[in-house]
Records
---
Amino acid sequence: MPRPIQEELATLYKVKQNTVSNIFLKKRKVVECESKLGRTINALITDLIINTDILREKAKFFVQRFEINDFTASNEWINGFKERYNLKQYVKWDYDLNNVFNYDETGLYWDLEPSKTIMQNPLSGKKKSKKHVTLLLTCNATGTEKLKPLFIHTYQNSQILRGKKERFTNENVNLTNVAVHFLPPNTAHLQPYDAGIINSFKAQYRKVLVRNRIEAYEILQELRKDVTPLNIYDAINFSKSAWDSIHSTPKCWQYTGILSQDEMNDIIEDYDEQAIRDEMEIQELINQLPFDDPMDAVDFLHIDDSLKGIEGLTDDEIVSMVKSKNKEPKTDPNEGSLEVISTKEALGRLDDLVLFFEYSSNISINPDELNILKKLRRRVLTLHINNAKQATLDSFIQ
């Protein structure tokens, strides 16, 4: 700094000019020292675990080399140094990445088709569609193990969940060999699921759903048979198929910063490119539907992003749950129902299928596929015989 400016500062703060000069000289040395320390830490961090104690000792080493007096590596300086050199702190655990799991919930409109006409009522107004479910998705950091999704349907599990919500959302569980920690609310940047896993799941789910609807509308056109409405059992099967199709979990874990780059380098997939491919594939499927005013793929993918899971209940919803605790579970009359098939009916249909594939000239089937069908028939036959024996025994006892 020029001498005249130093003299002005000395006059302003009522100190000697050489004191001001020494302060700026020390500042330059500190900046140079920090720069050297930063480069050293970045070089070491690729091979070693650097903690605060090591950082403090390295700082003292360079302070001595630069002959800086009256310097203490205080916690305040440590925090400032980390911020200036973008150093992040990670908790080092002894768990293998295969044993590190994360779970999160999401809401899903399970039967929603990509038609704007369908969307106009009730979703565009204040009334929200009731055909939604809550899904709890769990997987490990490497993507090698995905647990079966927990599927919560409207009304069906209200008795089971009563009194459990607060326990499962606010308390960490004390287990002997497992460490469980709940991430605080509004920490989406730390959630691998919010970073992309949920989006990947919903993309796969909607692919399965649209393919199913394409087939249903083709049957309508060719056989003049009514389009079969989706039911909750279809949604469960779609969810399983979608969850089994996801392979982008490591990238989402790495994106949050919970796991370091070095730990994830060998298993990262390019999630962004996969998301673009998903959008393009869904758009191609939507174009095959006989809708006059279809939604585009992006809107369809994100239509339920704001849908709450079980955790985001409003005060009115909590009051409603308490008031209805003694009522019978409700069902949606428009939801469709599952056809109950007896073992006798199942045997008849399997017999028809075996005959069809054995003697039809319009379709070819290899022996292994036919044997699978026959094995299924034998299993159903065994179940039918056992049920008949049990019915006979029950009538004898009565």
---
Amino acid sequence: MLTGEPLLPEVPPEVLRREIRSRSMLRDTLQSAAQRFGFSAAAQELLTSMLQHDRHARPTVREALNHSFNLASYEKERMPLFKEALKMRERLVDSCRAVMQEPILKRVARLAMAHSCDICVEELATERLVFRMLDRHGYGELSISVWENDFLFRGVSVPEDLDAIFESMDLNRDGYISYVAFLAFMLPFTLRSNENLCKVAFSILDRGKDGYIDCADLAVVFGHNEDSEMCRRILQEVSEEVCGRLSWRSFVQLMGGEFLS
């Protein structure tokens, strides 16, 4: 939940079904995780209550959301970050419109970076809070109606192009914007120009590992034929080379940074 790791891996089901045998494992695992990841006392208390064996004693969703650990994160007036998030939310549509105008390859690289970076880094604190503001139900994804309701809630007119913006962010075409897809659009310059992230994204796209992103690479990434016209056009957007390929240096410049190494 908080660590991204299984709570009790490879524990036989018959053991888990018996509280008298499993509660000590639960307690030890939580204590170990708390020490390793530095959980606060409130976080430990919430996890302990939610992960106890007796399902009747576990808190309801409402009780869990009203726990001090969660309530502390909503002390809006005393959080400078909250004011920053409000401003970002007001600029959200304009920011998304700007990303929509970027070359396709840059948007693909943004997604690769969003998948590769640690989503808990401090540089994404504001973006995480904005997503939480929109995702009022805590499902971890946004629908078009949820986004529309946010405008209505704030007394702001719903943008006429909201449908087009939403579709550009709905990468899976399932009617929802995932957290990672949201981060890909909102990825700050400090991360887009991060050398390690640039190298990871470039490596993902450079399937031939020859130091260039070419049509053959994109064909593999997108599942197209090697002579794909779409892949050729995608590269033409960003490459000035006659052979239609993108070097590491040009890739870094595309992502908005200076040449790194």
